[in-house]
Design brief:
The protein has six helices and four strands. The protein has helices at about 5-15, 30-35, 55-65, 80-85, 100-110, 135-145, and strands spanning about 20-25, 40-45, 70-75, 90-95.
Length: about 150
């Protein structure tokens, strides 16, 4: 079993333009429609929306099912960041990062060693509940998560 490359990050590396849709409604259907409409990514807003983790996970599933890359806008909270990434988010938008110290803290929360200090959990949704090794996931995550 293999984790797929982040198509948005790959497009950016190649200098291609990507188009996304901001989703501020906690609705997997809205995410699914964005994918079928041909958008490259969706940015699921967790900062200003009354959305819980199971709904976020369902929105990420809808993104995967419809071929759109799931990104999440989330406040700096290392525990929530880990949960959203473990649910399958392929990118994060973290607002209000205005100092070098805060930027380092965000990188530490998002990336595994040696790039950061994120803790591991080898049986999350993104690892297919343990079918993909923690080491393989950590390497993939450090390379493919867009921050």
């Amino acid at each position: 079993m293999e984790l797929k490359k982040n198509p948005v990050k790959q497009a950016i590396r190649e200098g291609r333009t990507v188009f996304g849709l901001y989703i501020a409604v906690p609705s997997p259907t809205m995410v699914e429609l964005a994918g079928y409409a041909g958008f490259d990514f969706v940015r699921i807003d967790v900062c200003h929306t009354a959305v819980d983790l199971p709904t976020i996970a369902d929105m990420i599933r809808a993104a995967e099912a419809s071929g759109v890359t799931p990104m999440v806008r989330v406040d700096y909270d290392p525990h929530l960041i880990a949960k959203v990434l473990e649910a399958g988010a392929m990118g994060l938008f973290i607002p209000d990062v205005s100092t070098l110290e805060m930027a380092r803290a965000v990188v530490d929360a998002v990336h595994f060693a040696p790039m950061g200090e994120r803790g591991t959990f080898a049986a999350s949704r993104i690892t297919r509940y343990g079918a993909i090794s923690g080491g393989e996931y950590a390497k993939w995550s450090n390379e493919e998560i867009l921050l």
